[in-house]
Amino acid sequence: MHRRTLLAASLASPVVIRGATAQPAWPARPIALVVPFTAGGSTDIAARILADGMASRLGNGARIVVENRAGAGGSLGADYVRQRAPDGYNLLIGTASSHATNPAALPATTPYDPVEDFSPIAVVGGGPMVIVASGRSPFRTIQDLLAELRASPGALSFATSGAGGIGHLTGEFLLSRAGRLRAEHIPYRGGAQVMTAMASGDVQFSVEVLASAAPHLRDGTSRGLAVTIPRRHPLMPEIPSLAEAGLEGFDITTWNVLLGPKGLPPEILARLNEAAVAVLADPAVRQRMAGAGVDAADATTPEQTRAFLAAELQKFRGIVREAGINLAG
Questions:
Q1: Among 95, 101, 47, 38, residue whose Cα is nearest residue 70
Q2: What is the rounded CA–CA span in Å between residue 107 and residue 120?
Q3: In the chain, which segments carry CATH 3.40.190.150?
Q4: H/E element holding 320?
Q5: In this structure, what DSSP letter does residue 41 have?
Q6: Contact present, 129 and 208 (Cβ < 8 Å)
Q7: For 218-273, what is each residue's pLDDT tens digit?
Q8: Which of 8, 25, 189, 219 could make an SS bond with 14 (beta carbons 3.0 to 4.6 A apart)?
Q9: Interval 188-205: pLDDT, tens
Q10: How many CB atoms sit inside 10 A of residue 18's CB?
Q11: What's the rounded Cα separation, in Å, for the pair 125 and 256?
Q12: What number does CATH give the domain 128-245?
């Protein structure tokens, strides 16, 4: 066999982890990919697309099975994976909530270090948040809402899917950046309850993930006032950005990253990164993810993924400080 053929064969071979005694080729059994939220959301859809594509690239009849372990804003599923053995058989789709906003706003009740307690593998993708009002609301633009907040301090309320989550921190950051405005935050257990509260007039606006809010925006039950990134987003290009309302530098997205428990062997880490990056570079995959409201990330190394996590954590810690958010007790 020619040398080039031998090299190609070696690159396609399953990883064998060697220690005092030879270990079975990895992967020798199904890999669990934990999604720390319920099935059906944009994170879950992105995870299933990623799992399908990665399994075929890991060889040896590899299977990746998605497991939904929801609770505590993503912290429950994240902590479950943190406690698993670093053998490549338990992975996590970390999110902005599980690995940035919860640790930033609720450090005393987040049982892990979001950077140091995991093995970052690759950034998967993300998307913006959107400021939303009811379709029957008198607020037709973000300027209308901000004007009323200035005219009636503390009289309005906004809903999100949980205290300390990305919607909550984004809403408080908006109020702070717009001139230390005041509004009451009312947390609900999920997006469906938020939509009901807005429709009934119990709250005047909400801060949602654009991908999750899109169906309600399209059917007119909700109205998008602004997205939380510098430019309009192709999923809903009719919704202006906060920069257009004069809030320059406002750039908050929700995101997903692929992680493993701390201490993944370098050979497995490299193999997982290679497979994830290859999947995310596939135009068909990128299109499927875009349909779920997730902008697939460009190629990232484990080192770049770690730096991304650290930067996002610091950003949200800064938001907590600037907005004076205190959820202790």
A1: 38
A2: 20
A3: 30-126+254-323
A4: helix 302-323
A5: S
A6: yes
A7: 999 999 999 999 999 998 999 999 998 888 878 899 999 999 999 999 999 999 99
A8: 25
A9: 877 778 888 888 889 999
A10: 9
A11: 6
A12: 3.40.190.10
